């Protein structure tokens, strides 16, 4: 076990060092290369796929390997995980849209020109881009959920992995939070520290259902789909009940009501179920092989 912890720590450090390099590069790109369109485009996508790069380097250098089969889709017998990967973030997005409207004093009427027909089209378009977005978000999930959380659990426990993994995932978003004002804007007291804190709250709680579907299936593919739904439909659903003027003038509130609060609401039961899932696996008896019997003796 001690050897496993050393390997886990080594893989985590390699992974985080790799991500840090790309975070710094992306910060430099935002600060100095915005007029160099091609270069800024390349650095942005390198940043998006930096967790994947870190995963490959960590698994190779720390000799973690790929024996866990995390890249296989494992469709058979894992329909529940794939269903949850679609339903949980979709529910969170709809909940965020409703909460944003109600807490900002807006009525739950369709604000899009074209009414219900345009709302249906908007929802369909959001889901239509899911597979493209899931491919992009795979650059993250093949790092966070395919390496970091598993290795953190070896060092800590499930709770420690969800909390620390979520914080690291949230801080990784610093370039887009600081330079682009992603999710919360820039015009608020405490910028950018409040935004980073809120992002970490969201990523800690979102990390629980993401890791849940990853552990339920033994594959990272459901997590990629889950993350794809988040990035595909959250903003699209907000437009159902909020006008652009209201959303633009209440960026911080919309970020809290439409993103952070739903993340916490879906994250808590997912976290509880994740812990119960771990306990059930620990309590499930497994037949000992002859080699295991000899080692234990």
Keywords, separated by commas or semicolons:
297 residues; mainly alpha; 13 helices; 78% helix; disordered C terminus
Please describe what this structure looks like.
It contains 13 helices and no strands. It is mainly α. The protein has one domain. α9 crosses α10 and α9 (193-217) packs parallel to α12. The longest helix is centred in the last third of the chain and has 33 residues, at 251-283. Residues 284-297 have low confidence and may be disordered.
Number of contiguous helices = 13
Total count of strands: 0
What is the alpha-carbon Rg in Å? 20 Å
Q: What percentage of amino acids are in beta strands?
A: under 5%
Largest sheet: none
Number of domains: 1
Described by the principal axes of the CA atoms, the overall outline is globular
- Gap between N and C termini, in Å? 17 Å
Question: What's the pLDDT, averaged over the residues?
Answer: 90
Structural class: mainly alpha
The residue fraction in helices comes out at over 70%
SSE string: HHHHHHHHHHHHH
Runs with pLDDT <50, length 5+? 284-297
């Amino acid at each position: 076990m001690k050897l496993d912890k050393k390997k886990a720590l080594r893989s985590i450090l390699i992974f985080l060092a790799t991500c840090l390099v790309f975070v710094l590069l992306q910060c430099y790109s935002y600060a100095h290369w915005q007029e160099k369109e091609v270069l800024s485009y390349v650095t942005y996508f390198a940043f998006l796929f930096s967790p994947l790069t870190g995963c490959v380097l960590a698994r190779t250098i720390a000799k973690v390997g790929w024996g866990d089969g995390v890249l296989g889709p494992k469709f058979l017998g894992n329909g529940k995980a794939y269903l949850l990967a679609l339903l949980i973030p979709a529910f969170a997005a709809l909940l965020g849209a409703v909460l944003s409207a109600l807490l900002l004093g807006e009525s739950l009427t369709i604000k899009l020109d074209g009414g219900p027909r345009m709302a249906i089209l908007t929802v369909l378009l959001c889901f239509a881009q899911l597979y493209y977005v899931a491919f992009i978000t795979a650059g993250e999930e093949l790092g966070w959920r395919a390496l970091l959380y598993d290795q953190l659990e070896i060092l800590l426990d499930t709770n420690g992995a969800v909390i620390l993994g979520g914080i690291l995932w949230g801080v990784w978003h610093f370039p887009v939070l600081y330079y682009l004002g992603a999710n919360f804007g820039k015009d608020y007291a405490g910028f950018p520290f409040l935004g980073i804190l809120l992002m970490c709250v969201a990523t800690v709680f979102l990390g629980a259902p993401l890791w849940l579907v990853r552990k339920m299936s033994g594959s990272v593919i459901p997590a990629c789909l889950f993350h794809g739904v988040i990035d595909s439909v959250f903003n699209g659903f907000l437009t159902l009940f909020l006008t652009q003027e209201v959303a633009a003038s209440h960026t911080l509130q919309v970020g809290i009501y439409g993103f952070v609060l739903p993340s916490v609401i879906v994250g808590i039961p997912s976290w509880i179920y994740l812990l119960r899932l771990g306990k059930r696996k620990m309590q499930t008896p497994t037949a000992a092989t002859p080699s295991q019997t000899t080692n234990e003796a």
